[in-house]
Design goal:
The protein is α+β, with helices and mostly antiparallel strands and 613 residues long. It has 2 domains: 122 residues, no CATH class; 447 residues, Porin (Beta Barrel). The protein has 7 helices and 27 strands. A hairpin with a 6-residue loop joins strand 26 and strand 27. It is elongated, with a radius of gyration of 42 Å. The protein starts with a helix and ends with a strand. Pfam families: Porin_5 (PF16930). Keywords: Signal.
Length: 613
């Protein structure tokens, strides 16, 4: 052994002896000096060891020992400070625990004395003794009570949210878009029935109205920049209930678009409006095997493409979704719901008066959508699977009807079937006249101010399917497809009243017979990551769409392909690339042509920058 180490050990001997001596001079926790003396007297064979008569640096033996070790060079100054701090902390905790235990013990003793005094005769003396094990139990109970209160009020975890705030989640997304629309030559005019039906009726008499009816742009190329911003909140309630709200941009109250075109509403950097896009209550049971929603919520029906339903469309009403795994990986599901499309104004009707001075009010003519869907999903493995479903939708009171004989002299007059006109439409559906206006009333020629309604009834049947091949995960191959057939369409009846979608007669140049239809389909292939979340995630897709005029209601389908609506066919290609976490760029090219009626074609390019949070 080296001489240096031997000297250190020699220095430790007197230090250890001093420590032994000091331990006899430190009172035990909760024990007085007189108690120590009594204890020593009982142990007559133990001689009390004294310490240096010099005044100690600290009344704590541990601190004195540490200081002595520093002085001897055994410990460094920073090591000593750490040990002293630890000793002080432990002493503080012990004192506080003893203090709390003493208070609790005194309270218990007083309660026991009071109870005993009430039960014992006067003059009886009582001495209360609280065992050490009881004190420990009291300390543990106090600690549990304090910690429970701290966790509930979150003052033990600085920066933590209160319990109610932890049940609320916010989410949102932003999209900046450049869009170019390019029209070839040879397009014919397309009448804008939505502009007429949501405004003043159109005067059909060409002799009195030399103007064309409102029509869509089909000839001049357009470029625009657009923004979509959405902010949503979901709150978990109790016993399976939750609620949600979402606000979104939008240049009007269109149900299929939350895009805001820059410079559209007033220009000159005018502010834009926000709309209530979602607002619902939801109940979930057995995990998410049963979900019941009421209010305005996302499309409850599974739809892998936008052939029938626009991806941004919100449903108003009530819906129920249920699923159950009958075998490992095989899960049937069903969906059903009822949704009001249009509710008649409480005061709807013409304030005209009959002979007995009774105002005329029209009966309620509400429009509804009832839907049901059934299907199943099956997993081949963790990354591959299929899903198929069939759905039936019943649109009630949407078909236009000819009114009873109606005398119209100005744009403010109304007829009894005016409310059968669509309150929102894109383009593509076949229309008919709604007003039965005689040519003359006596010798007076009547004005032919007209509104237009849908010529067909709509009860579409939809088949949907998706195959997910994940053999190269995270790269997948997705095959999506949908087919729609309007089971309520009767071509002969529609042709008899059709106002548009008439085939051109190349011989005479006048409109020919009705050539609309009631079927549609879409096929798409996507290769790449299923969701774009991270840097360099990617996917590309391509597909073909064919949607005849009256396969479904044009108001609710995709608003981008062919600038929205039905009666369109063509192809589309696109891709997405992740630029950062939850930030990605995308591009789409869509080429669409009319199927029936006037010639119409348009090519559209969209370049987007997207962010999700």
């Amino acid at each position: 052994m080296s001489k240096k180490k031997l000297d250190a050990r020699r220095r430790m001997v007197p230090i250890a002896m001093s420590l032994c001596a000091l331990t006899w001079t430190v009172p035990a926790l909760g024990q007085s000096g007189s108690d120590q003396g009594a204890t020593a007297a009982k142990k007559g064979d133990v001689k009390r060891t004294g310490v240096s008569r010099a005044s100690p640096a600290s009344p704590n033996a541990t601190i004195n020992l540490v200081n002595l070790l520093v002085k001897q060079g055994v410990l460094k100054e920073e090591q000593a400070q750490a040990l002293i701090k630890q000793a002080d902390d432990e002493a503080y905790v012990s004192r506080q625990a003893a203090k709390d235990a003493t208070v609790k013990a005194d309270e218990a003793a007083k309660a026991a004395n009071a109870a005993s005094a009430a039960a014992q005769p006067p003059g009886t003396r009582h001495v209360t003794y609280v065992p050490e094990i009881v004190k420990r139990q009291l300390r543990e109970e106090i600690r549990r009570d304090v910690m429970a209160k701290a966790e509930k009020e979150n003052w033990a975890s600085p920066g933590a949210y209160p319990e109610w705030a932890q049940r609320i989640r916010f989410s949102g997304d932003l999209r900046a878009r450049y869009e170019g629309s390019f029209f070839p030559s040879g397009n014919g005019p397309l009448q804008n029935f939505n502009a007429i039906n949501t405004g003043s009726p159109f005067l059909e008499d060409a002799a009195l109205n030399p103007y064309y009816p409102p029509s869509y742009n089909t000839s001049e190329d357009r470029q625009r920049t657009r923004l979509r911003a959405r902010l949503g909140m979901d709150a978990d309630l109790f016993n399976g209930f939750s609620a949600g709200l979402r606000i979104a941009t939008g240049e009007n109250n269109s149900p299929v678009s939350t895009n805001q075109t820059f410079g559209y509403n007033g220009g000159d950097f005018s502010k834009y409006a926000l709309w209530l896009d979602r607002g619902f209550l939801k109940y979930q049971a057995w995990g998410d095997d049963l979900v019941i929603s009421a209010g305005r919520f996302d499309n409850p029906f599974w739809s892998p493409t936008d052939l029938v339903w626009n991806k941004d469309l919100g449903f108003d009403g009530v819906a129920a979704q249920a699923k159950y795994e009958i075998l490992p990986g095989i899960t049937p599901f069903v969906v059903g719901g009822a949704f009001p499309i249009y509710n008649t104004d409480l005061n709807a009707g013409a304030n005209l008066y009959t002979g007995n001075s009774t105002p005329v009010k029209f009966k309620s003519d509400d429009k509804w959508l009832f839907g049901a869907q059934a299907g199943f999903s099956a997993r081949f493995d963790a990354q591959s699977g299929v899903r198929f479903a069939g759905a039936y939708y019943d649109f009630s009171n949407v078909q236009g009807k000819l009114s009873s004989a109606c005398i119209v002299t100005s744009t403010t007059d109304i007829c009894d079937t005016d409310m059968r006109r669509p309150s929102f439409a894109q383009k593509g559906n076949t229309y008919r006249l709604l007003r039965n206006i005689p040519t003359y009333s006596g010798a007076t020629q009547l004005s032919q101010y007209q509104y237009y309604g849908l010529a067909s009834d709509f009860k579409p049947v939809v088949a949907s399917g998706q195959i997910d091949l994940g053999d190269f995960h995270p790269v997948h191959v997705l095959l999506d497809g949908e087919y729609v057939w309007n089971s309520a369409f009767k071509k002969g009846d529609v042709a008899a009243v059709a106002y548009n979608n008439l085939g051109p007669d190349v011989v005479t140049g006048v409109p020919g017979p009705f050539n609309g239809g009631n079927q549609g389909w879409l096929g798409r292939v996507t290769v790449g990551h299923k969701a774009i979340k991270h840097l360099w995630d990617w996917n590309v897709h391509g597909g073909y769409k064919y949607l005849e005029s009256d396969a479904t209601i044009d108001a609710f389908v995709d608003s981008d392909f062919g600038l929205g609506g039905t009666n369109l066919k063509g192809y589309f290609v696109g891709g997405n690339l992740g630029l950062s976490e939850n930030v990605w760029a995308s591009m789409r090219w869509m080429s669409a042509n009319n199927i029936a009626g006037m010639p119409y074609a348009v090519d559209i390019i969209q370049v987007d920058l997207n962010a999700r949070f």
